[in-house]
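User: Some background: our group keeps a shared notebook of sequences we're curious about, and every so often someone picks one and asks for a predicted structure to add to the entry. Today it's my turn. The entry only has the sequence so far, pasted here. Could you supply the structure so I can complete it?
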Amino acid sequence: WLGMLAGGLVCALLGVLIGIPCLRLKGMYLAIVTFAVHLVLPTLIVWAGPGRFQNFSTGGSFGLQRIPPLSLFGPISRQDLIPWYYIALVIFVLFLVIINKIIHSTVGLAFVALRDSESLAKSLGVNEYKYKLLVFGISAFISCVMGAFYAHYFGIISPAVLGLDVFLLALVMV
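Assistant: Of course. Here's the predicted structure to add to the notebook entry:
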């Protein structure tokens, strides 16, 4: 559980670091660069495979295998779907409450102002760059925690998860 949160914080930091150069771009160019980062990730994961680093390995093209299931008063069986459903539901509700708190705060007011009228928000003193970096960090944190949940549920994570077909399917859904 702590590893999921720590991973989320590391991903939030990486999301901000990726967002720093990306946010200098506008419109379609931003989308193209984030798409390019997505295309580079599987290659980077395979490159950082076994034998490349002493204490850290991504498992290469095989990915990380034998990831233990989450434990809540003992290990949760992967065959019993009910506990996994309720854990996912609790995580979802927790993130929903956090996002609701963010939206109904001054930070959320800045998000809404930037969404509705970027030029008006800038003229009122809203720092566009800062708040967009914050969105990069928050979305990376949530994605990483849910990715860790996914990894514990299936017991394996591999570069195939970052395949172009999955990315395009998600893009079409958006």
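Suggested note for the entry: The longest helix spans residues 128-154. The helical segments are 2-22, 28-47, 81-103, 106-116, 118-123, 128-154, 164-173.
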